[in-house]
């Protein structure tokens, strides 16, 4: 783990001065601690705050903050400042203090990846407000904030980092630990007047981390367990049968393969492992070549040299496919189309897996919406000699990726 302290004498004094404006004098003492900017073993960034002398031990009770412990007092979507909050119930700080008295470690696990990336909040604003809220608990609370793509919930990045904070040799029994969150997949009306949860990300985070899960109503207010819908379960992908990919039809002449499918559908895996590595095809990929003109040039040169070519792009429209088909026609080379029928919900999940294992840039949801709106089903009138539809089938090159695929 790489750590970079964010504490400075002048700035720290100024910061504490701002924070104490929202706290009683005794509460302000709890704010004395330090922030560190941490790079995890998988390259994600986490902001970590611990009160001086804080030593985590098992069991641990972990929790989200907004919507779980506190509400935004102003009623706005985002807080207006460090003091813009109120306890959802007075039972919450009382319960947290009792847990501390019982020897339980308290840790706030907060995901600010999206808000920071979109410029909706600033890092210093996040830190100051969290310190204010946690200081009001009046007992030591560690704070971990996910700030980089790949660490956002439901990926268990924050829990994985938390375990590295325990003393060397300490046993952490996740089965005895819990996570409390408000995004639990509950439907509208799960209680009188309640709105539908906007997601199930907190419940899935707990599942992926292997810890118990409770909503704040269940944990702090002893309300009965509400109905919920977990949604897409990626573990079901492991039960899918293997799919046989089309074999080359080279003969004595080259051919072209045009892949069609949304981002993270598995196109590059098929192109690289099956066609390039196994059968010697030249792989043409716009992400690597950076422009359509370079893709077309590489394709044309490869066909002229008698090479087989696989076009590893999304290719959603007839226009996008036509330029490559025209090159094949000019070279008198047959073209087959392979459509990867990976459902979009699986693509979203595979995108997360790629981010956490290969440093692949995050693909926003809008990219999938654009693909879906532009998509034109390939047909033989475009010049394809064959069109093959291939269902999704999981494939792993390392155990870690298999584990991540199982994450919800």
Automatic annotation (TrEMBL):
One MF term in the entry's GO annotations: ATP-dependent polydeoxyribonucleotide 5'-hydroxyl-kinase activity
Family annotation (InterPro entries): HAD-like_sf, HAD-SF_hydro_IIIA, HAD_sf, P-loop_NTPase, PNK3P
SUPFAM superfamilies assigned: HAD-like, P-loop containing nucleoside triphosphate hydrolases
One GO BP: DNA repair
NCBIfam families according to UniProt: HAD-SF-IIIA (TIGR01662)
PANTHER family on file: BIFUNCTIONAL POLYNUCLEOTIDE PHOSPHATASE/KINASE, BIFUNCTIONAL POLYNUCLEOTIDE PHOSPHATASE_KINASE
Protein name: Uncharacterized protein
Lineage: Eukaryota, Viridiplantae, Chlorophyta, Pyramimonadophyceae, Pyramimonadales
């Amino acid at each position: 783990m790489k750590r970079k302290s964010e504490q400075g004498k002048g700035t720290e004094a100024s910061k504490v001065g701002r924070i104490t404006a929202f706290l009683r004098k005794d509460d302000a003492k709890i704010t004395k601690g330090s922030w560190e900017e941490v790079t995890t073993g998988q390259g994600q960034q986490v902001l970590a705050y611990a009160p001086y002398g804080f030593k985590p031990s098992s069991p641990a009770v972990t929790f989200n903050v907004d919507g779980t412990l506190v509400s935004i007092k102003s009623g706005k979507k985002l807080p207006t400042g460090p003091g813009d909050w109120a306890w959802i119930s007075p039972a919450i700080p009382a319960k947290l203090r009792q847990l501390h008295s019982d020897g339980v470690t308290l840790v706030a696990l907060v995901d600010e990846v999206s808000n920071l990336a979109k410029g909706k909040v600033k890092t210093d604003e996040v830190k100051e407000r969290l310190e204010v809220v946690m200081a009001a608990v009046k007992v030591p609370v560690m704070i971990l904030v996910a700030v980089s793509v790949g660490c956002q919930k439901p990926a268990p990045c924050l829990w994985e980092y938390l375990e590295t904070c325990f003393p060397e040799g300490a046993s952490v029994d996740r089965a005895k630990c819990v996570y409390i969150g408000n995004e639990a997949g509950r439907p509208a009306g799960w209680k009188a007047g309640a709105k539908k949860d906007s997601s199930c990300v907190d419940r899935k985070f707990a599942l992926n981390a292997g810890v118990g899960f409770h909503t704040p109503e269940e944990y702090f207010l002893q309300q009965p367990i509400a109905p919920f819908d977990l949604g897409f379960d990626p573990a079901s992908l492991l039960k899918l049968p293997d799919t046989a990919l089309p074999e080359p039809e080279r003969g004595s002449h080259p051919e072209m393969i045009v892949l069609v499918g949304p981002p993270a559908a598995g196109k590059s895996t098929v192109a690289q492992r099956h066609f390039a590595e196994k059968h010697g095809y030249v792989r043409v990929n716009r992400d690597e070549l950076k422009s359509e003109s370079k893709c077309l040039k590489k394709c044309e040169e490869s066909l002229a040299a008698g090479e087989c070519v696989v076009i590893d792009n999304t290719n959603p429209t007839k226009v996008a496919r036509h330029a490559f088909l025209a090159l094949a026609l000019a070279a008198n080379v047959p073209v087959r189309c392979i459509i990867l029928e990976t459902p979009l919900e699986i693509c979203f999940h595979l995108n997360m897996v790629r981010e956490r294992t290969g440093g692949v840039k995050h693909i926003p949801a809008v990219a999938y919406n654009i693909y879906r709106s532009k998509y034109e089903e390939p047909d033989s009138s475009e010049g394809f000699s064959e069109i093959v539809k291939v269902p999704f089938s999981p494939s792993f090159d390392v155990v870690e990726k298999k584990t991540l695929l199982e994450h919800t």
